[in-house]
Amino acid sequence: MNTQRGPYCGIGGDGVGLLSKLDVKSLSPKGRAVLKSARQLFERQGYDGSPVRQIAAHAGCTKATLYAIFGDKLGLFHSVVGTLAAKLPSPASVIAGSSWRVDIRFCAIAWRLARLELGRDFQAINRLLALPMQQAEVDPFPIWREIFDPYRAAVVVAIADAKKRGYMRVDCPELAASQFMCLVRGGLSRRPGKKELAPWIDSELKKHIDSTTAFFLAAHSVREGQWDHLLYP
Fold this sequence. Notes:
Strand content: under 5%
Oligomer: single chain
CATH architecture of the largest domain: Orthogonal Bundle
Largest sheet: none
CATH superfamily of the largest domain: Tetracycline Repressor, domain 2
CATH class of the largest domain: Mainly Alpha
Number of helices: 11
Structural class: mainly alpha
Order of helices and strands: HHHHHHHHHHH
Number of domains: 2
Shape: elongated
Mean pLDDT: 83
């Protein structure tokens, strides 16, 4: 199960997916200018509100140059999102660390997942995919899957390892990984009427992570009361 990322390699790390495998370093100065311009305008105005002519003018090039490099507007959009996704921590790094204390390990994994979502690059991706894209009839869900599936696969590895060592009772590690990620991400609430995630104080985030991990491990305990010390400090 591939949990590597970088340069961005698509769903499951096999190079197949919607997002571009674009190597930014190989782009010409014009190409990098277009990519930067597109990100700024897409984030501020959305896909629908950013005409190609405006992106090209903002980058100081022609529409023909933009099309020659990125193919079309949708290809440019995928390149922008894919470039941001390539900056995210590798899925393998999210589950790194010792596995002998499963409670500490899953607290660490939950912390890294939360930090991932609260990070600048992830929030930029969120803004890009949250704004309307009706002109291209883009469904953001497959893009989210392409970004998130490698992290979910990494969590599956950690859960399967904990099950093998006798720390957890899990029938389906894949389903348990989805549950764990939903518990972690579900508490990262948004401001009412806003696209951005609300800022978290580290002490409050720690409480969320600790309780999330405790509830998850208790739900998958091998024996009665195995993780009660986490639930009742």
